[in-house]
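Attaching the record inline, Q. Sequence:
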Amino acid sequence: MNKHFIIQWWHEQAPLIILYLLLVGLLGLLQYLYRSPADLTSDFVRFSLPVFAGWLTWSIIRDHHRQQEIAHHAPFKATTPAELALQRRLAEEQVQHRQLVQALRHRQHVRLDQLDLFSHEIKNALAVLQAQADDQSTIDRGQVQQSVRQANYYLDLLLNGERLTMTKTDFRLDWVVVSNMVDQVVRENAPLFINKQLRPHFGPLSGQVLTDPKWLHFCINQLLSNAIKYADPATSIQISWQGGTLKITNAGPAIPATDQPRLFEDGFTGQNGHQTTKSTGMGLYFVRQVARQLNFRVAVFSPTSRQTTAQLTFPDTMVKP
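Structure, as predicted:
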């Protein structure tokens, strides 16, 4: 038995020992007050002390044995209400711990799958450049720009996905002029517009929104990239802001009804996404994560059989003219 165990056992048994001594003292006081026979207290001590000492000895041996069982992970049976409550609490904690470990392992597997997916897409873009460099002395400028844009797109998804998995994301709120943000994103995607002969058509864009400029840029860029990806060539993409809602509408295949409930799932590409090898199903998933953390809503739907609309809706408290 170590010193720590003796101290803990003494603290547990001290109230009982003190109670026994008080009982002996009370009996002696009563004997004195009522002038009872002098042998009454001595007989009580003589007959009760061995029993009490034996009980204390059994108690210390029992507690030490139970401590050894716990230390060696032997089956432990609760004998008191407090031990039973602690045993139940331990079982609950163990269940929660296993669930947490499973969740962390699942999260790790998901992140590894995402990393593998994005790395594969980036490698594809670089492989195209490598193949052209091996076959030709000069490389087409447009092909280089397209491959670089594709690599940057997936690298941006990868980095922002990692940021979103952190416990604390570096959000910095500021008033953002909607027209300026939309103009910046459209300019960055100008080569994609030109490649598919698409035209941006701007509706009302006057207004400001209180949010994180960097993450708003990310969300608009993802929605616009999807609109460009699935738009019919030589059509227009409508972009407007009204009543705290930014809408991006493209002319192209509608979203199948079976895909609609799963659009924001991790890695879901849907029927339209399977028609292109450049769809990872991660863009909308990340946009939904950002929307939840910055307190606005994202929705994607098809108002007609040849249109798809993506929209970001902000609370009134975050919008001003």
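The radius of gyration is 36 Å. Residues 81-135 form the longest helix (55 residues).

More tomorrow.
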